[in-house]
Structures are given as C-alpha cells and as structure tokens.
Specification:
The structure holds two protein chains of two kinds.
Chain A lengths: L3 E4 L2 E4 L5 E7 L5 E8 L3 E10 L2 E4 L7 E2 L9 E3 L8 E8 L6 E3 L3 E5 L1
Parallel strand pairs in A: 2-11
Antiparallel strand pairs in A: 1-3, 3-8, 4-5, 4-9, 5-6, 7-8, 9-10, 9-11
Chain B lengths: L2 E3 L4 E5 L4 E3 L2 E3 L5 E7 L6 E5 L10 E2 L10 E3 L8 E9 L4 E4 L3 E6 L1
Parallel strand pairs in B: 2-11
Antiparallel strand pairs in B: 1-4, 3-8, 5-6, 5-9, 7-8, 9-10, 9-11
The chains are: A mainly beta, B mainly beta.
C-alpha cells in the first residue's frame, strides 16, 4: 500500500534530550516535507526536500534539522528540544510536478 | 508575506443545506491553491486544487484573484462531509506550502 509512515506516533521527552522522528515513503517520491500543527495556527512548514541531499527551510525551521540521504527517508531531528516544540508533527511526500501531498498519520510530541 | 486565512474555526450546517467554507490568501505572485480535508481518524488528504477545476464529492472551489479568495462550496451538505478542512497555498514552484488554521465542519442530521 502506498503510504507515508511516521514513527513514533507519540513521544514524550525532556528538554534538551536529542530526538529523531522518522518519516519514510514507499512511492519513490522526490519531494518530502515536514509540518507542525498547533492550535489556532494550523499547519506550518518546517523543512522540505526536493530530492536526495537537497533540503531547504520552510516557514518555521528554527530548532530543527533534517537530512535526506536516501530518497525514501526524511527524518526530523531536534537536537535540543524545548517545550515550545511540543506539537503534532506531520510528514508528507509528493510525486513529480504539482501532484498532491501524501501525509503521514502524525507524531504527537511533548517536551517537558 | 504569504498568508492563508480561514475566518471560521467552526461551522455547523444542517444536512441538505448549502455550505461554504471561506478561504482568503495573500500572495503577490500567481497562486496555487488547494483544499485538504481530514476526516475523523484519517490522514490529511487532498480534496481539490484550483488548477484542476474539478468537483470532488460535490465540492467546488473557484479562485477569485480579484478578491484573493478560494472558497469551498457544496450545494447540499451530507453527514459524511463532517471533517476538518484546510485551505493551502503553494509558492516557490510548488515547494513551499502555507496552510490556513482550518475550519471544522459539522453537518447536523
């Protein structure tokens, strides 16, 4: 089944403890992106990647890192998480051109 | 700066009544606009996009560049339309996305 898989679904951590949220797609999509969803703010783009080794900042990249070493994976890295990064995170991928975004099921992160 | 505004956080309509979810955007270039929907316990998914000029599940949306709007409409709401709806703007050759804050639609039986 074509899909975007995020792990974990839920994560509770403490301030400053590095963490990685994984995202994988099985559709051979070149484009992948990360979003955070906060009440009253909707979804905001964190980073996106147009292909392997090609990444760029979205609207709210501060405090996050990404890497794209393989086409199928696009992990989101929080080197030193802070409570203001408590949020619901979504990964998405897209095929060529202006095709639709396929979203993952989300990762609820709580930073204490 | 680019922005997408959905003025209604919550919207309730009766089954069979018309529904309109409002979306306004600000962007100086040529916009690409989308409506995404999230049904209960499902992933966010594309409902429709302006470039396709299509009708999906009875919904339509027309891009009005003069009013910078992309309102979503359906003439007769159904209970299964109850969901969260997000309007989205794509810029930078489709790489950057700006989403509205979403409208939660409830269709009352």
């Amino acid at each position: 089944e074509a899909q975007v898989t995020q792990n974990p679904r839920y994560l509770i951590t403490v301030t400053g403890k590095k963490l990685t949220v994984t995202c994988s797609q099985n559709m051979n999509h070149e484009y992948m992106s990360w979003y955070r969803q906060d009440p009253g703010l909707g979804l905001r783009q964190i980073y996106y990647s147009m292909n392997v080794e090609v990444t760029d900042k979205g609207d709210v990249p501060e405090g996050y890192k990404v890497s794209r070493k393989e086409k199928r994976n696009f992990p989101l890295i929080l080197e030193s998480p802070s409570p203001n990064q408590t949020s619901l995170y979504f990964c998405a991928s897209r095929g060529g051109g202006r095709q639709k975004l396929f979203f993952g099921s989300g990762t609820q992160l709580s930073v204490l | 700066a680019q922005r997408v505004t959905q003025p209604e956080k919550l919207l309730s309509v009766f089954k069979g009544a018309p529904v309109e979810l409002k979306c306004n955007y600000s962007y100086s270039g040529s916009p690409e606009l989308f409506w995404y929907v999230q049904y209960s316990r499902q992933r966010l998914q594309l409902l429709l996009r302006h470039i396709s000029r299509e009708s999906i599940k009875g919904f339509t949306a027309d891009l009005n560049k003069g009013e910078t709007s992309f309102h979503l409409k359906k003439p007769f709401a159904q209970e299964e339309d109850s969901a969260m709806y997000y309007c989205a703007l794509s810029v930078n050759t489709g790489n950057q996305f700006y989403f509205g804050t979403g409208t939660s639609l409830t269709v009352i039986p």
